[in-house]
Design brief:
alpha+beta; BirA Bifunctional Protein, domain 2; 2 domains; 3-stranded antiparallel β-sheet
Length: about 350
């Protein structure tokens, strides 16, 4: 039987030597095109199978020779790829002796620091954070809060209407109205943080836009003592461990009785200083017991359920906490101002 391997051996050895002597991947590509492509010199030898007595043996001999060539070729390709990777790694090697790039760390606006801290304090007391739309209906902003149309309490808040019955909320109490409506007479314990909008002067202590965190608790046997204990604990966590609170009678349409809440000055601890204007007390928020009309309109029986509500101005707390002299600084995106608050203020 004819030894068909002799037909391919000479050319196969030539091709393997060419591959071994190749210096670049371009050489390898040229060899593949010239000898191993469909019309390459080595591939064309397969055409002689027509003349072979044993076509099966011829095909096996051809494939064996071709496999050996491809084995050498693949090894050479791996060698070139390894050298290429080595060169790339060497080129991209980091020189650890060079000075690093200084990446300037950003600062968080004190407004958001205070908002998060207030939320964390109340969450630790078992409150849930509730949110609602900034553009809301008159029904939720006023009517369900015991402020009917033409009520004089609207004078300071009736503002920024989108349509006759749609306006930018003037307090986050509107969120409370939504929650009470959806609660179907069940107990509630929430805080409502968010932006509010009012007709107001823009000066050092006032802005037409500001933010509140309002709170609402409704359940059986809730009383004014619960409200005072809650706000006193908040003041101690927010300002000073020895903070006290006092109530002064006030009026809000949605609470009865209503109170203004003062905290003992965290700077002088009640002795009198420039922060508290010598009084030893700082007015910080408004609060009161939920008005029976508000309970009744939202499906609660005021003979069974009672509750308290309070509202805290976030910027007001931040101004006291950090000694900021102008509320407008929180909204001006002045990097120099914001960078002053990188350090955590300790009690």
């Amino acid at each position: 039987m004819q030894n068909y391997e002799n037909i391919f051996s000479e050319l196969a050895e030539k091709i393997k030597n060419l591959i071994a002597d190749s210096k670049t991947m371009e050489n390898i590509i040229e060899i593949k095109n010239k000898y191993l492509s469909k019309k390459g010199e080595f591939s064309l030898l397969m055409g002689k199978i027509k003349e072979a007595e044993d076509k099966k043996a011829f095909g096996e001999a051809f494939n064996n020779a071709k496999n050996k060539i491809e084995e050498v070729l693949n090894e050479k390709v791996k060698e070139f790829e390894a050298k290429k990777l080595e060169a790339q790694l060497k080129k991209e090697e980091i020189d650890i002796t060079l000075p690093g790039n200084n990446i300037k760390r950003g600062s968080e606006n004190p407004f958001y620091k205070v908002r998060k801290e207030i939320e964390d304090i109340f969450i630790s007391m078992g409150y849930t954070v509730a949110t609602g739309p900034e553009v809301d209906y008159d029904k939720y902003v006023f009517e369900l809060l015991n402020i009917p149309k033409d009520h004089p309490a609207r004078d300071m808040q009736d503002t920024l209407y989108i349509e006759d019955d749609l306006l930018l909320r003037s307090h986050t109490s509107s969120i409370q109205a939504h929650v009470m409506e959806e609660a179907n007479g069940k107990p509630i314990k929430i805080i409502c943080p968010g932006k509010t909008y009012r007709r107001d002067d823009d000066d050092m202590t006032h802005s037409h836009q500001f933010a509140q965190v309002e709170g609402l608790v409704i359940d059986k046997n809730i009383n004014l003592g619960n409200l005072k204990a809650t706000l006193e604990l908040f003041a101690q966590k927010m300002f000073s461990k020895d903070s006290k609170v006092r109530f002064r009678s006030s009026f809000f349409p949605f609470t009865e009785p209503s109170v203004e809440v003062d905290i003992s000055c965290f700077n002088c601890h009640g002795k009198g200083c420039n922060v508290c204007k010598g009084t030893g007390w700082i007015e910080i928020l408004g609060a009161g017991m939920v008005h029976p009309n508000v309970l009744r309109m939202s499906g609660y029986d005021p003979e069974v359920y009672s509750g308290f509500a309070f509202g805290i101005g976030i910027e007001r707390v931040a101004m006291l906490r950090y000694g900021v002299d102008d509320i407008r600084r929180f909204y001006q995106s002045d990097i120099r101002f914001i960078e002053e608050f990188n350090k955590k203020v300790e009690d």
